[in-house]
Amino acid sequence: MNTGTPLVEMRDISIAFGGIKAVDHVTIDLYPGEVVGLLGHNGAGKSTLIKCLSGAYNADSGQVLINGNEVEIKNPRDARSQNIETIYQTLALADNLTAAGNLFLGRELVSSRGFLDESAMEAETRKIMGRLNPNFRKFNVPVSALSGGQRQSVAIARAVYFNAKILIMDEPTAALGPHETQMVSELIQELKTQGLGIFLIEHDIHNVMKLCDRASVMKNGQLVGTVNVNEVTDEDILSMIILGKKPAKAA
Amino acid sequence: MTTAPHSRPASNDVKGSLFSRFAAATEIDTRLLGMAGALLLIWFGFHFYGVLVRGEGFFLTPRNLWNLSVQMCSIGVMATGMVLVIVTRNIDLSVGSVLGFVGMVMGLLQVEWLPPYLGLGHPAIWIITVAVGLSLGVLIGALNGVLIAYLAIPSFIVTLGGLMAWRGAAFLMASGRTISPVDSNFALLGGGPYGSVGSTGSWIIGAVACAAIIYGLFASRANRRKHDFPQRPVWAEAFMGAFGCALVLGSVLVVDNYFWPKGIVKKYIEDNHLTVAPEDLFIAQGFAYPVLILVVVAMLMTVLMTRTRFGRYVFAIGGNPEAAALSGINVRWMTVKIYALMGMLAALSAVISSARLTSATNALGQTDELYVIAAAVIGGTSLAGGVGTIYGAVLGALVTESLRTGMVLIGFDTAVQNIVVGLVLIVAVYLDIIYRKRTK
Questions:
Q1: Interface contact flag, A94 B323, Cβ < 8 Å
Q2: Whole-model pTM?
Q3: Is the domain of B435 the same as that of B355?
Q4: What is the pLDDT of residues B405-421, one digit of tens each?
């Protein structure tokens, strides 16, 4: 179903920490308007692989191609300049800053004299939060005072606000209640129709079946295989995760 | 506290006691009120102790308050930098020794190295000395920062090493001699009769400061209107303006009522061939130069911390270093810059304290690091990182220095002074922990 140039191609990525191969010659790709699930046990290497794309780690070997062009992503700043945004599992929020402070962290709006434009940042934050989480009111307190769901929506707002083309979501619903999980699902659908490509690290197999177009399964740092979600059952995917074997029927 | 206060809209419908409604409407940090209260308690306590025991209070006199203002400057300047260091979860134990070393280099420069080339009292001497001193401070600080950020040596160890090494280096520079007297222009930076702006100058500074306070209130109101944020009630704005101006003009009145000592007045009359009797000539000291230096440093540092990206990154690193790095902030380079700034401020304090002593001694700045850290922590800087304010640190310096001078005035010896300041530090941090728990 996917033709043309992939939005992202990670080719033959390897990274080791002190002799342990966290990611071992893994190749995955992502097309515009597509959600690719990354699955596997804890420690399978999903988050490590994805951190090579978000700039948090530097791969020992392998290539990253964006729209068919090889790019070098050495740090988070490089990733951001390629319109890659990441929602980390830990959310990566500075607890002592406000929602606006976190949303614009590293990309602050400044006035013509170079000073922080707090008012403009707060106004923009009110706008985007009004869209993502209309009940959000706590604009003037540090995010440490927010609930898990509110914190999550701040982290999501940060990824969405800057016109991401490639979105990495590391277990975005892990800390959320059913209502908020539903909101995240709707958001993912909406972003998909806008043509974003999304890597979704997810443990809940039902979410995978519901949200993902393809699923790449990893085990012990290696890629077990990538399948089209509508061609397999959840049982198939679970056996890939557990046994590390690709089902016979999906080529 | 971590964002500029002006972005925090007031809520006019806060329930609760009169006090909490007052604090909410004026948007004054309740911790600031607490510290101001503690300061007043210390001041009046020492004064009335003097009244009761000696029959005369010495603390709340223009003379003592003026001296207090000058004595706190060295610690106050460094405390503003220590806030950044502690907010980013580091520590700098070397500031006192760096102060001593830089002070010694500056002493030698202006007393022994430069005069042979420029001639004694050359007007460029003090400028070269200060420039070299500040640059040296930046270099030493940056070295600390590189060791901490790029070699990943804990800041406690790097600066503990610095505490010993720079004190030793200061001794070696002059083989333990005291370098004195410093250049006469340089000495003005330490305060004293000639190192102050006088009566007229003080009133002009006071007027400008009041105008700035009122302008600031109007500008903040206009900014809130522009973005449709809630306004503070008018009475709260009026109170803030009136209180700020009263504070400024009150301090002008104090320094305008501390006069030159008789001996200096006599010399002044002789030098200027006046015919007035020394008893009839009252020349007000006005604000001392080091006080003005501290005020300017505190204002610049406040702007840096609350209005610039640099300051925002300092808080972000303190709040969550990993998140800061993932947001593209170069945490290591920031650490180097923060320590370089701390080094420069230690050098500036070296200027102030060696100028005040008119000599560079081997003990200059000894144990200052402890008072600087105490000032920052008493001023609400959290050792866990992420929280701290410049004005808090300056107030903290004022509190510790008030305690020290107060105890000297009522005749406590050094041993007791140390005990009291130590206990105050522990109690202040304990109160701070309680405060944070209750406001969480």
A1: yes
A2: 0.90
A3: yes
A4: 888 888 888 888 888 88
